[in-house]
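Reviewers asked in the last cycle whether our approach scales beyond single polypeptides. To address this, we selected a multi-component target totalling 668 residues and predicted its structure end to end. The input consisted of the following lines:
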Amino acid sequence: MKRFIGFIKKEFYHIFRDRRSLFILFGMPIAQILLFGFAITNEINNVDIAILDHSKDATTKEIINKISASKYFSINQFIEKEKDIEIVFKKGKVKAVLNFEKDFSKNLIKENNANIQVITDATDPNTANTISNYVNAILQNYLKEQNKGVVQAYKIIPQTHMVYNPELKSVYMFVPGVMTIILMLVSAMMTSISITKEKELGTMEILLVSPLKPFQVIIGKVFPYIFLSIINAIIIIVLSIFIFKMPVQGSLILLGLESILFIITALALGILISTISATQQTAMMISLMGLMLPVILLSGFIFPITSMPLPLQVISNIIPAKWFIIIIKGIMLKGVGLEFIWKETLILLGMTVFFIGLSVKKYKIRLE
Amino acid sequence: MSIKIANISKFYKKVKALENISFEVKPGELFGLIGPDGAGKTTLFRILTTLLIPNEGIASVVGFDVVKDYKSIRNSVGYMPGRFSLYQDLTVEENLDFFATIFGTTVEENYDLIKDIYVQIEPFKNRRAGKLSGGMKQKLALCCALIHKPKVLFLDEPTTGVDPVSRKEFWEMLKRLQQKDITILVSTPYMDEAALCDRIALIQDGKILEIDTPKAIVKHYPKPIYNVSANNMYLLINCLNEFESNHSVYPFGEFVHYTDSRSDFNPTELETYLESKNLLNIKIEKTVATIEDTFMELAK
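The resulting structure, written as structure tokens, was:
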């Protein structure tokens, strides 16, 4: 036990004396969560638009007022000619132009039909889509108000009700994802680097020719990172609760335990990587390419798994991050307990046992 | 016997690193493994310290087999690899403490063993190991390898890259350690250090050329050897190489060591020849062979 404590003490010296990795350890989670929370978002706010109103009557005025009153759009300018549409787009001042046809009001009353053209700048397809949806929604809303009391033959009114994230805040989606990435990166990359560092600097040679047992070396290497990763998880959760007002519906204890489980999964992966790489650089490349990319692309963090082609959907099942994201989304947003996520937890547990078993088997007690 | 090696061979794919090596090291002996880079010294060390498994042959250290009883060996030997292998970001004191702890002992417990060496680096005990000079790094590494009072000490090229003064000090320390009943196996590419060992094995290309005491090895040198010097070293070597009956010509400090292939060689004959080549200040004196001469002769 004394040997083990001595080893852990040494590990902490390494971590705290290496300013760069310390910065990565604690700077990155904060930077990432703030970046994803503030900058990378699917919501639109105060989008500049231009209006081309050929009719200039009461109805168009009312619609324009409604649009400019919403927080989504702000009217940047009014233009007079069709030709100007392209000019304002090219200047990049507006993201969309609303083009009301001539005699808009008249057509609406007489023919029950009036046309408005929504032209959006689709260089950013997601934003363009969102803009046109929002404009549509405002127009529908306006029509509904106008038609109050008027009996119509058939009408289907969908009552959309968004649950778990009623305001559709994208930060709610990103926090679980970012937390997964950070825990994966810190745990797997840092441990794999710290173990291969011993190999690269030749100190592993001395550790091997010592009474330390392999599992003592591995656990000694991993233990400080469990500790640091837990601190990281706490930082992320605190940040998301206090800065982004993200609710944690479920039990914080369950969230903590599941996080620890995932941290151990990632550490086991880190050990596995270190057993197959000889240098710190290889370990880093394998961690980044082999872990980060799948976590970002295939875990359902950014791209929904259900819309992936079947082979990728199958592959996504072997990515631990996928299961962890399901678990924390469940706990944080839906407030579910273990009875709903035991299956995912069990899968994660199974993977952890598998990775640990494999790395113990692959751990070399000699140099070759 | 402290170390027993019998018919050890080791291959890396097609390269034969060690070929049929056998020797024994007695308890308390300071045994030197002398050979150039790539001779197989490090491979042999790694086999004896249980880091590599030999392809053929058996070896034992303090009675334990290097393959089967590797755990027992790891408990009872001290190993200092050729490359500086301590934690560069830990201070001198922290390194020493760490190695004491993982071997289940304390610095205080075996302080008398390392005292002579440690006092020299003690003024720098709060300095990080990576910031030490070459000689001090080696002294610290030796302290770390000794701190658990090993029965056998393996030192792989401990003085490579170390200045001559530190080298001398280092060997004096080894001599003192030997008196404390520690068997030492040391390797070095420096022939002058070989003379300080009790016995040496000359090794080249994975084969042992000769094993004996340094004195006996020198005595085995078959020919009279001459120190030759002149005003122009470069020309001198060229001329000696052109001399018909030469057996060996090796530059050796300010002299050239020369042997002749004939048994009835007369130095004046050589002197006349060199004079004819316009060399001045020619001196030819008989000298005693060194281990280096022996090595060169055996390696021919």
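The mean pLDDT of chain A is 86. We regard this as preliminary and will revisit it once experimental data from Aim 1 are available.
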